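Late entry, written up from scratch paper. The run itself happened at the end of the previous shift, but nothing got recorded in the book at the time, so transcribing now.
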Amino acid sequence: MSSNTIFDHIRIVLCQTSHPGNIGSAARAMKTMGLKHLYLVKPDIFPDAHATALATGAADLLESAIVTETLSEALTGCAFTIGLSARKRNLSHQLINAREAALEACKIATQQPVAFVFGTEMSGLSNAELDCCQLLAMIPANPEYTSLNLAAAVQVLCYELRMTILAGKLDAEERSELATNEAIEGFYTHLEETLLKIGYINPRAPKKLMERIRRIYARARLEKEEVNLLRGILTLSVNPKKHTKY
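Output as recorded:
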């Protein structure tokens, strides 16, 4: 597996960025470390001359950036997603440091696309956005002053990714294909519909329980065939005579 393939399987996703300058600086940070796939989820202002100015020689990354309305769209095709958190969360996601996250992601990127997701400058990722992630990562900054600019955080993460890839210890392992983001989201939709039909969740407030369920499956890192199996069970649980392969 060439290092170029691993670099090409990594995307950086910025959610609802409020300042265009941070987008430009993030693009510059990415290019200096050899990364090129930038996704922007509902940026407040883009494109913008200030973003281009701060990108310096990385304006090409801005030109090729994919802009989406939702995080789920930005994660299309991804088999693994890591959310960056500036603080510890009262969530059941596994939380590791940026260096460990780079290693985890690069192992998967030898075969399938992965994404690192960054939240807004002021509040970071929302709980709903974190629910699209399988893992959380932190940059272990000074506990007395943890504030880190968005582009600086992107730079640190991209550096860790580059050093991990260049270390050359990422030979592709024999592993089953992980389910893509859209396959996982399809499963969650199917699961919620089934739980509503059997009366397990409150139809007036289904999201509360679904958040907890999503975090259980996020830890499992579902494979493609496992999602097919689970959806088959869901189908038969409400319609025993119907058997559908997904």
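The chain has a mean pLDDT of 91.
(Scratch paper discarded after transcription.)
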